[in-house]
Write a structure and sequence with these properties.
Blueprint (H helix, E strand, L loop, with lengths): L13 E3 L5 E4 L2 E2 L8 H12 L7 H8 L8 H16 L12 E4 L2 E4 L6 E2 H14 L5 H14 L15 H24 L3 H14 L4 H13 L3 H19 L5 H11 L8 H10 L8 E3 L1 H18 L3 E9 L8 H18 L5 E6 L2 E7 L3 H18 L6 E8 L6 H5 L1
Parallel strand pairs: 1-6, 7-9
Antiparallel strand pairs: 1-2, 2-3, 4-5, 8-10, 8-11, 9-10
Helix pairs in contact: 1-3, 4-5, 4-6, 5-6, 6-7, 7-8, 8-9, 8-10, 9-10, 9-11, 13-14
């Protein structure tokens, strides 16, 4: 169901692009029944995104599917556009978005022949108007910024994960959203509206968790409201996630906040509790632990010492991505495949397993408490889960398992 929006009326033709893409008119989602026609809709999104710019068929197809060559691009485009127009005409033929798909002198463009409402355009307009009112009418600016932020429900055309042509546009609208959030926060600070700042930061973090400045603003607002324990817990959570997922240590601004969230007089009995909250990390994180190679070395040595004392077994697993002739693949393809493999591994392994990206082509996995047979099953399961969702794109995935080496061999492995 389409969320009600105060900016639009029931009779408007509405196109939503910030988050999930859909076209809504007369209580019908036009792209819902034909959602499987991915290539056709990507052509629509490309032309819509490059408003009033004409492109030849071969240019459009090369942008949206660069890995494929078409013997007759014009024929392919004609077929896709014909199907698009038929779908767009299903509500009204006189007032249809199909009129905006224009073919002229062999090239295609999106023109404004039929009026429509577009959330990305509305976001731009609201942000620009709010900026003009910052000094003269801050109350009205606040209302406009609130509306702009409410429009942004995720990255621009988020369903197109690996389309290079989208990246500049995606960054552009994301920057508008983030700027609106920070401008609104500054206006609310003047009014000491910290409760609303907390709510805004939490909503923005749900969309863009790795924008550190949002966490800084949230922690500062929590402190201003006197919620020191909550601020402390959030600090511990976010710094652990940033280190785990990105290998990023707390910035100077975050370190300054650490001194504030831990400087609570008369509450020393809570220190150990807050430390434990920080050690737990966010409950939403499941699966194996991801760390950088240096931290992995440390866990490896700890696990080896534990194995020597207890007599239990632990194994080391290795995934390597190569071309069929055992060379390194192209950086772009390699990075895409290894990132996908890393995500599957983290979700397929246990919480006590530890994963690191050892180099551009290899993932190293520490598997505590498993024997070789169990470890082989785990390593194979990760590969199976990966191949269910992703393609190796003509590359080879190599797997290897070894027991932890005795002390005299440790230098050969890690140094």
């Amino acid at each position: 169901m389409v969320r009600e929006d105060p900016h639009i009326s029931e009779n408007d033709i509405c196109i939503f692009t910030l988050g999930k893409f859909y076209i809504y008119h007369n209580k019908i989602v036009l792209n819902e029944k034909s959602n499987r026609s991915r290539r056709m809709w990507e052509i629509f999104k490309f032309l819509l995104s490059h408003h009033k710019t004409a492109f030849f068929p071969e240019t459009i197809l090369a942008k949206i599917q660069p890995e494929k060559e078409y013997p007759d691009p014009s024929m392919v485009m004609r077929a896709h556009v014909f199907r698009l127009k038929r779908i767009l005409n299903q509500c009204q033929t006189n007032n249809s978005l199909a009129n905006n798909l224009v073919l002229s002198q062999g090239s295609y463009s999106w023109e404004d022949r039929t009026k429509y409402w577009l959330d990305a355009d509305e976001l731009e307009s609201l942000a620009a108007n709010a900026g003009l009112l910052l000094d003269s009418n801050p109350d009205q600016a606040i209302n406009l910024y609130r509306k702009a932020i409410a429009l942004y429900r995720g990255p621009y055309l988020s369903e197109l994960s690996f389309s290079e042509w989208l990246e500049p546009l995606r960054s552009y609208y994301h920057d508008i959203f983030v700027n609106c959030v920070f401008e609104l926060i500054e206006l609310l600070k003047d009014r000491k509206a910290y409760k609303e700042i907390i709510k805004i930061c939490e909503q923005a973090n749900a969309i863009d968790y790795f924008e550190e400045k949002l966490h800084i603003q949230l922690i500062e607002a929590l402190l201003a409201e006197g919620e020191v324990l909550r601020a402390r817990v959030h600090y511990n959570e976010v710094t652990s996630v940033f280190y785990r997922e990105l290998g990023i240590k707390p910035s100077e601004q975050m370190k300054r906040l650490y001194r504030l969230v831990t400087a609570e007089p008369g509450r020393f009995e809570l220190d150990l509790l807050s430390i434990q909250e920080g050690l737990k990390g966010p409950e939403s994180i499941k699966g194996a632990y991801l760390c950088d190679s240096e931290l992995f070395r440390y866990f490896y040595k700890l696990e080896k010492a534990r194995v020597e004392r207890s007599g239990q077994t632990s194994l080391l697993g290795l995934y390597t991505i190569t071309t069929p002739n055992y060379r390194l693949p192209d950086d772009k393809i390699l990075n895409e495949v290894i990132q996908q493999l890393q995500g599957i591994a983290l979700n397929s392994l246990r919480k006590i397993d530890i994963v690191t990206r050892w180099n551009n082509a290899q993932l190293l996995i520490l598997l505590p408490g498993l024997n070789r047979e169990q470890a082989e099953m785990v390593i194979a399961r990760v590969e199976t889960n990966f191949l269910k969702k992703h393609s190796l794109k003509g590359l080879i995935l190599h797997k290897k398992i070894e027991s932890l080496l005795p002390d005299e061999h440790e230098v050969n492995l890690f140094e």
